[in-house]
Write a structure and sequence with these properties.
Helix content is 0%, strand content 49%. By secondary structure, it is mostly beta strands. The strands form two sheets. Strands 2, 4, 5, 6, 9, 10 and 11 form a seven-stranded mixed sheet that branches. Strands 1-3-8-7 form a four-stranded antiparallel sheet, with no helix packed on it. It starts with a strand and ends with a strand.
């Protein structure tokens, strides 16, 4: 499995922006569709965004569409999540995920590798 390490989380105010990064290692990065999920305290893991292996296609969850943008740099084996107009309800642990068998997957079971997560807290 590919190894994933997230970074960039933190405490911000409502309306601010934040950029998360995920560095992959151990396997060819272009073998994997990449995704971001999040999990708020006491809630199930929620799909945020996914991007195809060639970076041409992206899918977003309803709650973040129009505010978040996923991008990948295959030369650097990294995927990013640009989060704008943040809201308190965006507060969660954000996880990077990699999947070798699906494109456009929106469920956790579509991904085999996961990072440890990075906390994002948005204050009102």
């Amino acid at each position: 499995q590919v190894m994933l390490q997230e970074s960039g989380g933190g405490l911000v105010q409502a309306g601010d922006s934040l950029r998360l990064s995920c560095a992959a290692s151990g396997r060819p990065f272009t073998n994997y569709a990449m995704a971001w999920f999040r999990q708020a305290l006491g809630k199930e893991r929620e799909f945020v965004a996914t991007i195809s292996r060639n970076a041409r296609d992206a899918v977003y969850g309803d709650s973040v569409r129009g505010r978040f943008t996923i991008a990948r740099d295959n030369a650097k084996s990294t995927v990013h999540l640009q989060m704008n107009s943040l809201k308190p309800e965006d507060t969660a642990i954000y996880y990077c995920a990699a999947g070798a068998y699906y494109t456009g997957g929106v469920r956790p079971e579509h991904y085999e590798s996961w990072g440890q997560g990075t906390q994002v807290t948005v204050s009102s």
